[in-house]
Amino acid sequence: MRCNVLGKEVFASVFCLLLVTGFSGCGDDSSSGSEFCGDNVAEGEEACDGTDLKGMTCESFGYSGGVLSCGDDCSAFDFTGCTGDDPVCGNGVLEQGEECDGDDLGDRTCQDEGFDGGDLGCTANCEHDTTECFNDTPAECGNGILEEGEECDGDDFGGETCEGLGYDSGDLGCTDACMLDTSECIEIQPECGNGILEEGEECDGDDLGDRTCQDEGFDGGDLGCTANCEYDTTECFNDTPAECGNGIAEEGEECDGDDFGGETCVGLGFDGGDLVCTANCEYDTTE
After folding, report:
1. Are 136 and 128 in contact (CB under 8 A)?
2. Which of 231, 200, 229 lies closest to 218, judged by CA?
3. Tens digits of per-residue pLDDT, 191-206?
4. How far apart (Å, rounded) are the C-alpha atoms in residues 62 and 96?
5. Sign (positive or negative) of CA dihedral 54, 59, 62, 63
6. Which terminus of the chain faces fewer neighbouring Cβ atoms within 10 Å, N or C?
7. Nearest to 249 by CA among 275, 274, 210, 271
């Protein structure tokens, strides 16, 4: 091929070809400055690229050691070379997936959690415990917001109710000093005889509150309930046989010495007189 450039004949095929094509491709690298997986430079959205791990190691992800590498497509790390178990909550070592572990809080403080001060702790679930954190701003009673140092504020009772305070019902109030007002709470006195065991009663009818003679210190028997809603142990007994003559009225004895178990002549249907106890621990009503 013969070309004429600036009036001179040049027999350089390659040079003519470049002239014809307009030096196509020279100085035009469309890939320049763009991400390229495999060039060992982690750019843009690449997690890593070859040996460029952006300073990350196996330990950065909670492993105890090993060699971190980059995935083939540069979009994720390859952890196959890392060693160690999953994070163990309670071993005192802050690991990947934990907020804290024991005294290891990861340099976090109450201030980092949005408080003014205090001691940040760690729960048994390896989460930050802010119960000992505080804010310096004093509570503003009357702003309708329950704050530190207030029992209530306006209609904000922090979920508290009359029932939660031990009353049966009623409307809980809040004083101007942001203290709970229980004057409208209702406390119903127990109704002995309705068969329902209520506060202040030992029992009511057949409702003994799961108590038995054994709970009352006896070996066996049937625990009952008096008309005054108190335990009745007259049907309870001990396996130890009664000892007549020891001055104690026991199961199987009507009396023993001067112990008549509270019984009198009048109680036995007489108009009066002195009840006596025989040597066999039986009532003597001759008097």
Report:
1. no
2. 231
3. 899 999 988 899 999 9
4. 4
5. positive
6. N
7. 275
